[in-house]
Amino acid sequence: MKTLLGEIVNIPSYRAMGVKWEGSYAEVPKLKEVILHMSDRVNELLYVKNPKTQLGLSYHLRSDGFVHYSVFEVDDQQELQPEMVEIIVPEMTYLKVTHPKGKDIGATYTEIYQWFKECDYRPLKEKGIEYYDDLPIKHERYPIERDLEDPHFEIFIPVLHKS
Questions:
Q1: Which pLDDT does position 4 carry in this prediction?
Q2: What whole-number distance in Å separates Cα of residue 42 and Cα of residue 118?
Q3: How far apart are CA 148 and CA 76, in angstroms?
Q4: Are 138 and 55 in contact (CB under 8 A)?
Q5: 104: Cβ–Cβ under 8 A, 6 or more apart, which residues?
């Protein structure tokens, strides 16, 4: 379903593998190194589904930062590689927004925050988990060959219909 900002899409459950980072907002510059490190390690994954799309899965589980998985989607036969983690992402409905090259990332997220104030959806918050952000779960899909200084990518925010 199309919206003024993007579209509402359903994505089936999938398995992903890569590296986990957890840190404060002050430590975010280190995250870029983790993401680059994982993009270099994709060749270790024999059963990667799309080696040209890197996933960034962020969960705001800390008051001063977040947990981030820099991963690639893999098939079930992929064995866990040394110093990597696996994550199973359940089937969810998302708001999908394309962030274009040349636009401030903060501006794109501001538009997303505003959209939630005016629509029939709310960001998903899993029961029993305390989140520290109005957009508690942010999934991003990056083309592997992107400009790291001015990236373009897709943003997926899990949503529930307001009842």
A1: 67
A2: 39
A3: 30
A4: no
A5: none
Whose structure tokens read 């359940």?
A: 90
Helix, strand, coil abundance in the chain, percent, nearest 5: 20, 45, 35
Contact criterion met (CB below 8 Å) for 17 and 55: no
Q: Within 10 Å of residue 20's Cβ, how many Cβ atoms?
A: 16
Q: Which residue has the higher pLDDT, 148 or 61?
A: 61
Phi, psi of 77 (to 5 degrees): -80, -5
Asked whether 61 and 30 are in contact (CB, 8 A), the reply is no
67 pLDDT tier (thresholds 50, 70, 90): very high
Long-range contact list for 121-128, CB < 8 A, 24+ apart? Answer: 121/8, 121/95, 121/159, 121/160, 121/161, 121/162, 122/159, 122/160, 122/162, 123/157, 123/158, 123/159, 123/160, 124/92, 124/157, 124/158, 124/159, 124/160
Q: All domains of the chain, ordered by start, with CATH?
A: 7-161 (3.20.80.10)
Query: Coil, strand, or helix at residue 94?
Result: strand
